[in-house]
């Protein structure tokens, strides 16, 4: 099997032109919905439609080390399809979003659940959740058109907003700024307010009644 230890700093036109398939894995029970590379270590995480094996973690050195890949079959008994998966920038956590709008933060190495949150369903639309660059907060949309933010260390919701764009299917935090974007058919930028209003309780910040998210138990 082929192997690669080449750093990204060595990349040039000739190397890009020389890229070819080095390994193939075809034992997935369904389409792969999402994947992400670890920011520091040679790991790749995948999420597929296979209900019996929705997530897999693979070492990324293309060698026999792939035999050490592990599966995350379910999280807390939730068998819903994982539609989005990503690592935090510090490499310590993974973020999973399911088709029934449950969000899980897992330990990136062992796969243990750190916390989870449940949001309103969004039929026919998959939501996206994102880490802040420091890995301390998670931001997500919801099926009722709201946006939510949680501190993953305290496991508490710290803010909620009305998105004003319906269900946000895309959500990203800027890597170098205190700013995130949410999008449906409209793109919206969220930035700090220089003249903030008095603080309100999470779930009541520009949020319709009854739309507060629910924290999931361990």
TrEMBL record:
Q: Where is this region: Disordered?
A: 197-218
InterPro entries from the UniProt entry = Swd2/WDR82, WD40/YVTN_repeat-like_dom_sf, WD40_repeat_CS, WD40_repeat_dom_sf, WD40_rpt
Instruction: Please note every region of biased composition (Polar residues).
Output: 209-218
What are the start and end residues of each WD repeat?
131-160
Q: Which GO terms describe its cellular component?
A: Set1C/COMPASS complex
- Keyword tags: Nucleus, Repeat, WD repeat
- State the Pfam families in the record: WD40
What is the name of this protein?
Uncharacterized protein
Q: Which organism is it from?
A: Corchorus olitorius
């Amino acid at each position: 099997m082929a192997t690669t230890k080449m750093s990204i700093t060595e990349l040039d036109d000739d190397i890009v032109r020389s890229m070819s398939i080095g390994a193939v894995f075809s034992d997935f029970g369904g389409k792969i919905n999402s994947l992400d590379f670890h920011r520091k270590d040679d790991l790749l995480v995948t999420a597929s439609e296979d209900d019996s094996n929705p997530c897999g973690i693979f070492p990324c050195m293309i060698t026999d080390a792939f035999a050490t890949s592990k599966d995350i079959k379910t999280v807390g008994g939730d068998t819903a399809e994982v539609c989005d998966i990503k690592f935090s920038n510090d490499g310590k956590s993974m973020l999973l979003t399911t088709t029934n709008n449950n969000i899980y933060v897992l330990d990136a190495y062992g796969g243990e659940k750190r916390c989870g949150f449940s949001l309103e369903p969004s039929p026919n639309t998959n939501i996206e959740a994102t880490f802040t660059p420091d890995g301390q907060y998670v931001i997500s949309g919801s099926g009722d058109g709201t946006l939510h933010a949680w501190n993953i260390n305290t496991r508490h919701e710290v803010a909620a907003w009305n998105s004003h764009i319906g269900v946000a299917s895309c959500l990203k935090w800027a890597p170098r700024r205190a700013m995130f974007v949410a999008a449906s058919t409209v793109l919206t930028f969220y930035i700090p307010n220089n003249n903030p209003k008095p603080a309100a309780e999470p779930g009541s910040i520009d949020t319709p009644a009854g739309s507060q998210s629910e924290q999931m138990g361990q």
